[in-house]
Amino acid sequence: MTAIPPVELLSVEKRFGNGVLGLEPTTLRVQPGEFVSIIGPSGCGKSTLLKLASGLAEPSDGRVWWWRGPFARVGEDGRRLAFVFQDPTLMPWADVAANVRLPLDLAGVPRAEADTRVAAVLAEIGLADRAGLRPRQLSGGMKMRVSIARALVTDPDLLLMDEPFGALDELSRNRLDERLLQLSAERGLTTLFVTHSIYEAAFLSTRVIVMAANPGRIFAEHVIDAPLPRGEAFRLSPAFADHARELTRLLTAASGEDDR
Amino acid sequence: MKPLLHNRDVLPVIAPVAIGALILAVWQGTCTVLAVPDYLFPAPSAIGHALTANWLTLLGALVGTLRVTLLAFALAVVGGTAVALLFAQSRLIEISLLPYAIMLQVTPIVAIAPLIIIMIDDTFVSLVICAAVVAIFPIISNTTIGLKAVDPGLLAYFRMVRASRWQQLVRLRVPSAVPFFLAGLRVSSGLSLIGAVVAEFVAGTGGHSAGLAYEILQAGFQLDMPRMFAALLLITVAGVAMALAMAGLSRIALAWHGTGGDEH
User: Fold this and answer.
1) Which one of A104, A218, B120, B165 has the fewest CB atoms closer than 10 angstroms to its CB?
2) Is residue B237 domain-shared with residue B122, that is, in the same domain?
3) What pLDDT, on a 0 to 100 scale, did the predictor assign at position B4?
């Protein structure tokens, strides 16, 4: 008996309004506890795949299942997913605590319970002393942490992230990558992560999906078997360099046929 | 003297005051030396005298004009916000009603005012309506734009977590519209004073609630130029006071809103 996959895309196809095939029939199963990254050249449909996996977009054909059924909403019993956008998308008029509390407020969670949960998640992500600040008083990395806290406060089992650290400097990105791995391990999260960076994918993932464009499709898979949790030592290890080299090779091959 | 002039806080006050004092001195000097009669062009001292001599009448007129202005402004804010909220509900409502709002705006108030004044028995009410008609448009247009100028990323988030239309309005659209609404408020406050004075002019001397425009008309008939200038001065002071009050209000509101004021 195998475990129930948190998300399954079963021969999903996405055809856009103008008839262009954005994603040819694709099947992807993500197993519990996996950290799956998706890399690929622009236009390969990696964001489309993530939107399908989050229910933000409907497939033109095929099916998407979460734990072999529909996922639960905040405030309902059952397993949940949370999505983190490329931008922090915070409310500038609300402080950090109110921004993190938003999904609980929208779901009608009682204020006292919501405040307890917000305080816990802010402490977890290291923002407890910033609860009263406004987004514009925070650095880019801190804003992204608030955005992640807003996802984690809903207590998700599956986390979907669309290039969340793409706009950050390398040092902040590395730090947040390490923090994200710790949080995933502590909370037993399953993560599907879109990135442009080969090194970020190599550091974070247990499995990397390489996609190709025209039409968007899965080109290759690469398993990264290094033990978790990983830290600076892994980033400096020969194994890391080997994985990065292999991903570079696959990505080059995936990009090879067009736009060069 | 030099350090004072280089002070960033003092300079914006000192410089205009100095220019004002200079103009007043030249004005007074010219009038005195050339012995210009008051009924042609009154000296500042004559205006000051007219102001103190007619103090009670002018103060009453000022209160009258301000009552019309403030009530019209309040009406424009409430009505304009309500219309903007209605426009934000559906594209159909907006495209159906917007042409009429624009018609109301482009028709000069002096042309509509006689109609309103004839149709409505109570002069005070008709003055308030005239001024409100002028003042309402910036509130409608700015607030409508603001309710739609929502950060697309935040809107995508609200849709993703299945926020209801009401939640989107209250928690997203209304807060996003605040800076736009405040800009509309500043324009509208000035327009409500202009509208009140123009309506008073059109209503003429018949009204019971005689304001500063009535004083100007009366002074004109009597060739009492110093009194005319005194009334004019009070209109200007009222306008400046309203503009300053709105600027202060919007600074406080924007600091609360998190989109204005000083960085951390």
Assistant:
1) B165
2) yes
3) 61
CATH number at residue B204: 1.10.3720.10
Domains and CATH numbers, chain A: 1-74+189-260 (3.40.50.300)
- Say how many Å lie between the first and final Cα of chain A, rounded: 46
Indicate which of A73, A89, A109, A144 best probes the interface with B, i.e. most B CBs within 10 Å of its own CB.
A89
Question: In the numeric block, which tokens belong to residue B240?
Answer: 């400046």
| Calpha distance A19→A28 (Å, rounded) | 23
Containing structural domain, residue B68:
42-257
- Beta strands (DSSP E) in A81-185 are 81-84, 158-162
Q: Give ∠ CA B63-B236-B205 in degrees, rounded to 5.
A: 50
Name the average pLDDT for chain A: 89
Same domain, B10 and B130: no
Å between B147 CA and nearest CA of chain A: 14
Other Cβ atoms less than 10 A from the Cβ of B155: the count is 16
pLDDT above 50 for A260: no
Q: Which residues of B touch A134 (CB under 8 A)?
A: 258, 264
Shortest alpha-carbon distance between residue A76 and chain B (Å): 13
Q: Is the pLDDT of residue A127 over 60?
A: yes
Comparing B59 with A77, the larger pLDDT belongs to B59
Give me the pLDDT at residue A213, please.
86
Instruction: Quote the pLDDT of residue A72.
Output: 82
Tokens representing A154? 């809903």
Please list the rounded mean pLDDT of every run of 10 residues in chain B (264 residues): 65 88 93 87 90 89 93 96 90 87 85 87 89 93 92 90 90 93 94 92 69 88 90 93 92 79 41
Closest chain B residue to the Cα of A75, Cα to Cα: B161
CA B126 vs. chain centroid, Å, equals 18
| Distance (Å) of CA B101 to CA B72, B76, B90, B117, B195 | 17, 13, 16, 21, 17
Q: Answer whether residue B133 is part of any domain.
A: yes
Interface pTM, i.e. ipTM? 0.84
Q: What is the mean pLDDT of residues A26-46?
A: 91
Tokens encoding A153: 């406060």
Same domain, B242 and B223: yes
Contacts of A87 in chain B (CB under 8 A): 153
Asked if residue B49 and residue B28 are part of one domain, the reply reads no
| pLDDT for res B262 | 42
The verdict on B11 and B76 lying in the same domain is no
Is there a single domain that holds both residue B64 and residue B25? no
Overall domain count for chain B: 2
Residue B153: closest C-alpha in chain A: A89
Contact A92 B258 (CB under 8 A): yes
CA-based nearest distance B167→chain A, Å: 7
Residue A16: the pLDDT is 86
Residue A89's pLDDT is 92
Instruction: Answer yes or no: do B90 and B159 share one domain.
Output: yes
